[in-house]
Amino acid sequence: NAGVTQTPKFQVLKTGQSMTLQCAQDMNHNSMYWYRQDPGMGLRLIYYSASEGTTDKGEVPNGYNVSRLNKREFSLRLESAAPSQTSVYFCASSQSHRDRGPTNEKLFFGSGTQLSVL
Amino acid sequence: DQQVKQNSPSLSVQEGRISILNCDYTNSMFDYFLWYKKYPAEGPTFLISISSIKDKNEDGRFTVFLNKSAKHLSLHIVPSQPGDSAVYFCAAMEYGNKLVFGAGTILRVKS
Fold it and tell me: Using one digit for the tens of pLDDT, what is the confidence trace for B41-80?
C-alpha cells in the first residue's frame, strides 16, 4: 500500500524556471493538500482540494497553482520559480467528508520534495 | 502571528526517562489538537490527537494533555526510546477549517 506518493524527491531550479510537483494517493481520500516546510515556520498550507473538482488557497498561495486532476492526483505548479520558494514540499491527503469538510483532520503525508531555487 | 507555538526548538532526554513536549495556542476556537512525528527524509505521520471535550488521551507510551484555560497542550512519552528521536509537530484546528501547525520540536533520546 503506497499511501501518498510524490515526485520528484529532489529538484534544483534556476530563478524563473517552471516545474510541476506531482502527487497521487491510493487511499480513496476526498481531500488533498500541498504544504511547505521551512525552518522555524512549521508546515504552512499552500493550496488544498476538499474534493475532486475543487481547489482553494491556503495560507501561502502566491507563486503557485494547483490542479486536482482526478480523485487520486493533485499537482502543484511553480510558473516562475523564485529563491523564496526554496523549501521542502509535502503533499497530504485526508478522508474529509466532501460536503461536511474536515472533522478530525488526520493527514497522510508523502515523503516530500526538496526544492532549491538558485 | 503564529496561532500555534512550540517554544522549545529542541529537547534532549535520556533513554527510559520521560519526554515532555509543549505547545501553546492563541485561538480559543480551536477544538481539536493533533501531534505528528517526522523522521528525516520522510513525511510527518499522525501520532495522537485530542478533542477539546477531553483533557487527556493516552495511547501506549504517548499521552496528550490539554489545558483549555491555559491554551496549552503537552505530549508525554514514557519511557522514551532512541527510536522516538524525531521532529514533533503540534497542530490545531477549528471545525470546518484547516489544520494550523507549530514550528516543531526536535527530540533527541540518548542511549
Answer: 999 999 999 999 999 999 999 999 999 999 999 999 999 9
In this structure, the number of other CB atoms found within 10 A of the CB of residue B13 comes to: 19
The verdict on B111 touching A (C-beta cutoff 8 Å) is no
Distance CA A91, CA A87 (A): 13
What's the one-letter identity of residue A10?
Answer: F
B106 to chain A, any CB pair closer than 8 A? The answer is no
Residue B32 forms contact with A (CB below 8 Å)? yes
Per-residue confidence (pLDDT) for residue A2, from 0 to 100 = 78
Q: Give the closest residue to A110 by CA, choosing from A92, A89, A88.
A: A92
* Eight-class DSSP state of A18: -
For an interface test with A, give the residue of B7, B46, B106 to mutate (most A CBs within 10 A): B46
List the grid coordinates of B79.
Answer: 519511557
Range 44-103 of B in CB contact (< 8 A) with A:
44-46, 49, 51, 89, 91, 93, 95-99, 101-103
Distance from CA of B108 to the nearest CA of A (A): 17
pLDDT the model gives residue A97: 57
Contact between A93 and A29 under an 8 Å Cβ cutoff? The reply is yes
* Segment (H or E) for A63: none
